[in-house]
Amino acid sequence: MACVAREENALTPTDAEGRRGGHGVRAYRGRRKQTLVMALAGVLVFSMTAASCGGKTSSVSMGQVGRGTVDEVVEAPGSVTARAAATVSAPSSGTLEELRVEAGQRVGKGQVLAVIDAPELEQRRDDAERALQQAGSTGVPAGGTSGFTTVRKRTDKQAEKAFADARAAAAKITDPNVKAALVKQVDAAQQQYEAASGAAAAAVRSVQRGVASLGAAVSSLSKAQELQARQAFELADAAVDALTLKAPVAGTVQLGGPGPASGSGSSLSDLLNAAGGATGGTGADPAGGTTSTGSAGVDSAVPQGAFVAAGTPIATVVDVSTLGLTAAVDETDVLLVKTGAAATVELDAAEGATYRAKVKAIDMLPTNSARGGVSYQVRLDLSAGKNADGTTAPTPRPGMSAVIHLQVRQATDAVTVPASAIVNTDGQNAVWAVRNGRYERVPVTLGVQGEDVVQVTDGVQPGQSIAVSGTDQITAGDKP
Questions:
Q1: Rg of the Cα atoms in the chain
Q2: pTM reported for the whole predicted model
């Protein structure tokens, strides 16, 4: 065999691109795949040949083509996500009159968390209540039909102000369920009032044409005024009711708002949607865009009796009854990932522990990768994990960093060779096989590929002798 004084440098599918990037204390592959060998038979290194040339020793390790099962895996960085979470905030400026929960307390959906005292909203409700009591006593306006028009326009302006006040109050509510209910109430009330106002205007026009009595116009205008007053009271009362803050989801209480992760700037929305979106009607961003106003080393909880501005986070409820994961998969690999695919997970916070997961959904729209390029969010359900000694691994917390190994392809009863046996020249994969007592470069077609073992779909057969290392020291026609 010819001697070449060089280090082993066989090119493999994974060596060609290598590792890039990092994640916590572990490195991950940005674009290439790894292989987990579930069962492998027949790949045996059975000899090592050595030759001396000019005082330098070189060696080639030999093995055989085998047969087994190979899993192709894509590695991606990710994080643990909660099933649902929501931050409730002060809907109006006022005082935190009551704080009925403590940090770490378990609460049910709809349970009262706190009560805000907002004199402005309460005064508006009282004024609306008095106006309602005086409504419905309209007589014949002075000035004939022009008087009717003046009264109706004044009533329209009062209704417009009531609707605007109600919408302003709704805009400050961060609980999406409460906000949506109040906005829907305002919309319905406005449509109802516009119909009544239109009926009053039509009645006045009928009087002007002499086809209706004055009493009909008075009755129609009185109904519009009474409706406006009742709606103004109901909307003001709903705004006051919103000052009683209730848990949008069941979970564990964290006082104040969600603090951004150190150095990352991630918000509460990054912890959600593991199971296809937050539950309890919290939407894609249950925090309503609210982030913590606290800083490092400062308790963000608002004490009872303190003044709060509109939008101040009072409490965050996190549902960790089930946990999930989001993985950022590079665009070059995402088409390999399928719903239902299995995955194994490693956490920076649980050294040596392995968790199981399953792909639930793959986002259609991309996100910009922190490493540059494009990646897609893959969402997974997370199962319990095991430590290296077989004991139950600790339960993760939302936001923890993870490295996720996604099983994307599997070849069973496949013809396999060690990845180190593959030589790539000008884009053509080959192995050095022994035929008729001499080395011959044999082109091969690869199937499922990995770091340790690859599938060969054409070129060699099980039991055939091949070089598995030191391949750069071989020349065609050399003897083993």
A1: 36
A2: 0.63
